[in-house]
């Protein structure tokens, strides 16, 4: 488990960026310690790195959000897109 500072360092982003992504729904709400410090897992680190790389490739936050939802549960996205096609 990582505190926000360690996660930021490992992902090469600022702590404010992580908080912003949480507010935007790109990062899931983290677990908290008894002292209310944020705790992140390796899965959170992978997600944050994915967001960072997608941003570097020019994806918008909205597009990244969609990509993340496809990675988690692709069926609703596939159904929504097929409805648009029909």
What does this structure look like?
With 86 residues, this protein is mainly alpha-helical. It has one domain (4-85): Multidrug-efflux Transporter Regulator, Chain: A, Domain 2 (Orthogonal Bundle), CATH 1.10.1660. Helices cover 66% and strands 5% of the residues. The chain contains 5 helices and 2 strands, in the order H-H-E-E-H-H-H. Strands 1-2 form a two-stranded antiparallel ribbon. Helix 4 packs across helix 5. The radius of gyration is 15 Å and the shape is elongated. The protein starts with a helix and ends with a helix. The relative contact order is 0.14. The mean pLDDT is 87.
Comma- or semicolon-separated keywords:
86 residues; elongated; 5 helices; mainly alpha; two-stranded antiparallel ribbon; Multidrug-efflux Transporter Regulator, Chain: A, Domain 2
């Amino acid at each position: 488990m990582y505190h926000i500072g360690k996660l930021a360092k490992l992902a090469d982003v600022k702590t404010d960026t992580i908080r912003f992504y949480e507010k935007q729904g790109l990062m899931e709400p983290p677990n908290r310690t008894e002292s209310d410090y944020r705790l992140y897992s390796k899965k959170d680190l992978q997600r944050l790195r994915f967001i960072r790389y997608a941003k570097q490739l020019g994806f918008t936050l909205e597009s990244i959000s969609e990509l993340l939802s496809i990675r988690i549960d692709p069926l609703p996205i596939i159904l929504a897109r097929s409805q648009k096609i029909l």
